[in-house]
Amino acid sequence: MKLPELAWLRKQMKKELEPARYEHTLGVAYTAANLATVHGADVQKALTAGMLHDCTKCLSHKKQLILCDKHQFALSEMERAEGSPLLHAKSGCVQARVKYGVTDEDILNAICYHTTGRPDMSLLEKIIYTADYLEPGRRHAKRTGREEAGDRLTQIRREAFRDIDEALRDILSDTLAYLENKKIDLMTKSTYDFYMRMQGKDRGDTYEQ
Ligand code: DGI
Ligand code: FE
Ligand code: FE
To answer: What phi, psi does 179 have (nearest 5°)?
Structure first.
């Protein structure tokens, strides 16, 4: 499967994104490439997905809605809501396909679910979700704001290269804690439930269905 040329994508992202978002994007792409190397995923796909994961983040909400509607990408009410933090993952997935020529379903899904995650993610999806949280440019765990977040982020960074599911559970816990008073998307909640339940299974614990 032919992937878009990385140097071209990088140039496009430099044009499309604000400087800090562009730096974050490079951090995610290279962190994803490293995670892919360690965990045996396709490095080129990880670079492509990382480079494009926030590709529509600097477009207006309205432009993102128009893009999704034009290409018949169904959106939930929460994704459609003005100021939704979830919309850019969906519009990014559409844009990756129609503007940047990505046809690989795994890459498109990694972009689509990079904000909420989803139950039973592919390795590439986990890599992008995790890299987004712990790329080197993140000064603190973005969703916690806790004082100890720096140390915790260091721990999660290390963990991600050892056991990506364990890192994923830590990230999901912190995200849910951060979202405490905000509206939680059904997908974010199902991802959390799925991976917490998996932990029970890993450790041989019993749990209620
Ligand atoms: O685009 P980034 O800033 O790199 O990061 P992101 O795409 O992971 O997330 C954007 C924000 O979305 C992040 O601050 C957490 C938030 N988010 C994730 N799941 C939910 C959510 N916000 C709400 N309100 N509800 C969710 O379920
Ligand atoms: Fe994002
Ligand atoms: Fe991001």
So the answer is: -85, 5
Does the CB atom of residue 58 touch ligand 1 within 6 A?
A: no
Each as own residue / partner, the long-range contacts of residues 38-41 (CB below 8 Å, 24 or more positions apart, any chain) are: 38/161, 39/123, 39/127, 39/164, 40/123, 41/123, 41/124, 41/127
For residue 142, what pLDDT is reported?
52
How many alpha carbons lie under 13 Å from residue 186 in its C-beta half-sphere?
Answer: 5
Rounded to whole angstroms, the Cα distance separating 139 from 28 reads 14
Mean predicted confidence (pLDDT) in 73-96: 97
Domains and CATH numbers, the chain: 6-203 (1.10.3210.10)
- Dump pLDDT digits (tens) for 21-78: 999 999 999 999 999 999 999 999 999 999 999 999 999 999 999 999 999 999 999 9
| Ligand 1 atom at minimal distance to the Cα of residue 89 | 7
Q: Which of 77, 86, 114, 173 to mutate to test the pocket of ligand 1 (most atoms within 8 A of CB)?
A: 86
Residue type, 2: K
Q: Which pTM does this prediction carry?
A: 0.93
Confidence bin at 207 (pLDDT 50/70/90): very low
Q: What are phi and psi of 155, to 5 degrees?
A: -65, -45
